[in-house]
Design goal:
- The protein is α/β, with parallel strands linked by helices.
- The chain has eleven helices and ten strands.
- The strands form two sheets. It has a six-stranded mixed β-sheet with strand order 1-2-10-7-8-9, with helices on both faces. Strands 5-4-3-6 form a four-stranded parallel β-sheet, sandwiched between helices.
- The radius of gyration is 19 Å and the shape is globular.
- The model has no long low-confidence stretch (mean pLDDT 96).
Amino acid sequence: MWHRNVLGAIGNTPLIQISRLSAGLPCRVLAKVESFNPGASLKDRIAVVMVEEAEARGDLVPGGTIIEGTSGNTGAGLAIVAIAKGYKCICTTTTKQSQEKIDVLKALGAKVVICPNDVEADDPRSYYSVARRLARETPNSCYMNQYDNLDNTKAHYLTTGPEIWQQTEGCITHLFSGAGTGGTISGVARYLKEQNPAVKVVGVDPFGSLYYKYFHTGEVDLSEIRPYLTEGAGEDIMAKNMDFSLVDDYIRVNDKQTMQMARRLAREEGIFAGQSSGLVMAGALQWMEKALLTAEDLSVVILPDSGFRYLSKTYNDDWMRAHDLL
């Protein structure tokens, strides 16, 4: 079997059983390992769908420019789609993101604009605002806006959800996912709950993000928002893709737990995963240890991206020591 271009290789990522990390739990734990996508993250999925839907609406036409604000992975996915379809790509990102992510974007031909991380979302210097401004100023361009573009959720409803349902033969009982834009958890949850409303969906949030507090109280507490090291998860704005009605519970994990769990995934399971993967796995294991699960339960944990994006951070002892994470 062969593909006409790299886009054909997106999706159909494997489920891999987690054995050592889940020792002591009565249920089976499976990881949906999204680093098997060509762009090494689950964001490849939304990149294809957002671009194709923009084409269908006439928002993106031949010779156009794709513009997006990204923590790195969505930008990489969009850069790959741009190559395959003949578009230009401009990505805004922040000083928080790893150098590997910036280097990947440049290697894939994207123009990268780096913005300060420690500014409010509506500040004209933020990567959200700069992306919108560039879209206004760049002729024949289309701002993808993964946060509020519901084609993000649609991508996971059409692909990730059905894959998990088919791969578990409909036996999944619990789904664990992080949320930044909210597209992954919302799209997968919607599909799975349509198949079986009893499936429980648990979100995992870093300390410093607003989602955990909002889920439990219905309030946006600005005092909860503070800087954190974990990339690609949590948010300081309410993304329209985030559908809390599909989530059954929410748990929080700190940076140290996140980074150490990412390392344990590599060392104990042979899965070289990124920071957000460590976040979700740490939260999932904590939640399952306190839940009344049985041998009949089957949990799926979504691992969004690859450890190769974080060689200078999570997998660098000097960086870990400098941030008191070892």
